[in-house]
């Protein structure tokens, strides 16, 4: 009887693990599909969206002009601020506003699909001085 209970417990754990893994893989595929479409709009190669760290490098290059900025996202605590700045820069580079940046920060996999397959147009990275002026002047 103990053997059957252990077997049942292990099978439940395995089922939960498999379901969580499947959900994570679905989110990763959706994220990469959206990012590939964004790369295509920006004139980059779509295959770059499927390469883990290179994808982040290319996104920072097309939205913030310097690709190495993606490294700040991997520093503990500072990474949250860097990812917030990254969300703003990505939204502005594709012609969206600051409200979309908040959505992008919390739901990047969905927003990548919206930017990639929606009618958002790639405008390129903005000048940091213009961004600060428009942010503080309310334009």
SSE arrangement:
Layout: H1 2-41, H2 52-64, H3 78-93, H4 98-106, H5 108-117, H6 128-137
Helix pairs in contact: 1-5, 2-3, 3-4, 4-5
Query: Portion of residues in helices?
Result: over 70%
Distance between the termini: 71 Å
Secondary-structure element pattern, one letter each: HHHHHH
Average pLDDT for all residues: 89
Count the strands?
Answer: 0
- Helices, by number, come to 6
Low-confidence stretches: none
State the shape.
Answer: elongated
Please state the structural category: mainly alpha
Radius of gyration, rounded? 19 Å
Our count of domains comes out at 1
* Oligomeric organization of the protein chains: single chain
